[in-house]
Amino acid sequence: MTQIRHRILDGAAAVAMAFASLLMVVLIVIFGWLVFGRYVLNATPTWVEQAALLMIVWITFLGAAVGVRRNTHLAVDFIREGLPAPLRTACIVLSLAALAAFGAVMAWQGYVMFERTARRAIPLLGISEGWRAVPVSLSGGLIFLFALDALIGRFQRGAN
Question: Which residues, in sequence order, are bridge partners of residue 128?
């Protein structure tokens, strides 16, 4: 069961990172189009800025969630690492529990934000403003799952 859970969550992280990477490529392409349009065609595509802002939100939030899964976020842990083993473990468990709670709140509030902004359109794009809130909720859900999995794994390792 543990291996299946890890594979599913690793797959979710891989999909999130692949999508964020694809958006990064699209972001580079549309900025190339912006520069070409502005300086060669003398006709600046006005939609690029709003599209770029939307993509950056998606890239940032998905990347943050994947960072939780891969444990690659910047951390100052020299104090924690200097503590005796029981206190160090307690700090790790507490931080994972807080991270899971934060992810759950983020998922919920992202959904609330989506509901409140879904009827407004993003200027120049004509799509729902709610698309800016979807990655907040999605990332929060992923952070919750990834932190919860790390917490469960810590307890399973401690039980063995």
Answer: 121
Q: Is the Cβ–Cβ distance between 74 and 97 less than 8 Å?
A: no
State residue 55 phi and psi, 5-degree precision: -65, -35
Q: Which amino acid is at 68?
A: V
Question: Domain boundaries in the chain?
Answer: 2-159
Q: Which of 153, 159, 116 is nearest to 134 (CA)?
A: 116
pTM for the complete prediction? 0.90
Contacts of 135 (CB under 8 A, 6+ apart): 57, 58, 60, 61, 62, 110
The model's pLDDT over 89-144, given as tens digits with 9 standing for 90+, comes to 999 999 999 999 999 999 999 999 999 999 999 999 999 999 999 999 999 999 99
Q: In this structure, which amino acid lies at residue 75?
A: A
Tell me the per-residue pLDDT of 38-57, one tens digit each, with 9 for 90 and over: 999 999 899 999 999 999 99
What span, in angstroms and rounded, lies between the C-alpha atoms of 59 and 65? 10
Per the structure block, which two tokens stand in for 141? 């859900």
